[in-house]
Amino acid sequence: MNFSLSDILFVIVIFQLLFISIFLFSHEKGRRISNGFLAVFFLSISLNLADSFLVLKKVYLNNPALVGWSICLPLLFGPLLFLYTQSILYKDFKFSRTKWIHFLPFIILGLTSEIRYLSLSRDVQIAMLNDIVDRKLPTTVYWSSALIFLQFFSYILRPNINPKI
């Protein structure tokens, strides 16, 4: 497997994100819950990038059932940054059961996309993987990307930050 300069930089970014997330998880000072949200945010970015890198390097061709496990991870970015911001702004912030609703799009899309993909035959999975490497994305990727952008903009355009929700 040949690595270009861009591949090396890609891997360096992935490891830096992993390192900072491990540091934030293990750091004793500061607000633990805030550090946890930020650590999971960096971890989800690194896992998403790692999966994309493995797809582009055709590592998954031997076992195509493993591909795409990170396609829904961007649905965590908005809720994690929102909850991180709330945990910084409010001293009495607590991660209650009602805050789990922010992760519902990630759970629903993650489960449905994985079940749908794993129900396909191995040959269809390999053909889909080759199409992705050749930049011919299936329509489901466009729909999930639209959902990710919709969720992202809903967090950006949120008029107020209510610590109860």
What does the secondary structure layout of this molecule look like, with pairings?
Blueprint: H1 5-26, H2 32-56, H3 77-89, H4 104-118, H5 122-133, H6 139-156
Structural features, described:
The protein has one domain (about 5-155). About 65% of the residues lie in helices and about 0% in strands. It is built from 6 helices and no strands. The N and C termini lie far apart (about 50 Å).
Structural descriptors:
single chain, 165 residues, mainly alpha, 6 helices, 0% strand
* Molecular shape: globular
Counting structural domains, the number is 1
Q: What is the first-to-last residue Cα distance?
A: 48 Å
Q: Which regions are unreliable across 5 or more consecutive residues at pLDDT < 50?
A: none
State the major sheet: none
What is the percent of helical residues? 55-70%
Radius of gyration (Å) = 18 Å
Q: What is the tally of beta strands? A: 0
From N to C, what is the helix and strand string?
HHHHHH
- Structural class of the secondary elements? mainly alpha
* Helical stretch tally: 6
Provide the residue-averaged pLDDT. Answer: 85
Report the β-strand fraction as a percent range.
under 5%
Give a quick rundown of the structure.
This protein is mainly α. The chain has helices at about 5-25, 30-55, 75-90, 105-120, 120-135, 140-155. It has one domain (about 5-155).
